[in-house]
Amino acid sequence: KYIRRFLNVCKKIKNTYDTIIITPSASDINEKFMNVISKQVNADKIINEYFVKLTKEEIVDDDLIDIERIRKDYGNSFNKVMSEIHRSFRRMKGETFEAKCVKREYLKYIKYIETNGDDNIRKYIDDKNILLLDDTISSGETVSQCINGILSNFIPKSITIITLIS
To answer: What is the pTM of this model?
Structure first.
């Protein structure tokens, strides 16, 4: 049902995107999603490894949990929130960070997406219309971190987000 609906939406996409960028995902759905979209959008470039999902260890070791902001926002509940975040890390099955294991309201305090630092793609992003693909949007935090990664390194003409399920 969802795939049929999605395919109908894909047929309506106008070929107005120069570059397709794929968000990182634990599954291969994004790749399959990109294959369907790329048949509708004749983009000059498809970038599927610019964004990297960090490991739990990288997040902790690099202090990518905004502790001061949590302290400011939660005050007396700070220790409880930090305990919940650490418990969510222990629930993650693999080494890679899994946003679905963390309460939605805490995701904004954790930086778990980074760019691979490849500046050679500038010609495909600066002053270009970008289509950002994400298989599933639940909290919107992954997409938000990807958009911030694009905007902090490049100057695109536009960014459009498309998702299979939200």
So the answer is: 0.81
